[in-house]
Amino acid sequence: MNDAPAQHGLLAGLFDLSFDKLVTPKIIKFVYVLVLLFGAITYLGYTIFAFQVSSGLGILVMFIVGPLAFLVTAILWRMTLELAIAIFKIAENTGRASHLAPEVVAAAPSAPAASPPAP
Question: What's the domain count of the chain?
Answer without folding.
Answer: 1
